[in-house]
Amino acid sequence: MPIHWNPNLSVGNDRIDNDHRHLIELINLAERALEAKNINKLSNQLAQLDHYADIHFKSEERIARAVHFPHSERMHQSHSDLTRVLQTCKHKVDNTAWSDDMAHEVLTLLRTWLIDHVIKEDLQMKPYLMKYAPSLSL
Ligand SMILES: [Fe+2]
Q: CB 3.0 to 4.6 Å from 12: which of 8, 30, 96, 130, for a disulfide?
């Protein structure tokens, strides 16, 4: 079942919200490839997700520092961990024969990745971002 962005996920910054919408879209596409058991497409979607997450994390860290988010150092560490998780996931997809267990593991990992990033971590920035215009972009 695809995930849908909703206003409860808004961190109060347009750039970050738009990035999160796009990350959700990429995860939905990866899940669609997973359901279709299309391993090449899944690998391709994970590469795109990794690429876009990297762009997003850098931009988000610049914005976090600009709004004086006090945990921006911890955020940077967490982004490195999330990047490693994605890369491990892609490595597994590229080097493991298809199985329902593998598919389940990848699906769980992608959902957890998204929830940890957007809901558990980025929403903590909201009170700081709300002091600035939603259009703040760096
Ligand atoms: Fe984010």
A: 130
What domains does the chain contain, in order, with CATH numbers?
Answer: 13-129 (1.20.120.50)
Return the closest-CA partner of residue 50 out of 105, 113, 3: 113
How far, in Å, is the centroid of ligand 1 from the Cα of 89?
19
* pLDDT exceeds 90 at position 38: yes
CA of 118 to the centre of ligand 1 (A): 6
Tell me, in angstroms, the distance from the centre of ligand 1 to residue 117's CA. 6
Long-range contacts of residues 24-28, Cβ cutoff 8 Å, at least 24 apart: 24/114, 26/52, 27/3, 27/110, 27/111, 27/113, 27/114, 28/2, 28/3
- Report how far ligand 1's centroid is from the alpha carbon of 108 (Å): 19
Enter the pTM of the model: 0.92
Q: Of 133, 115, 118, nearest to 67 (Cα)?
A: 133
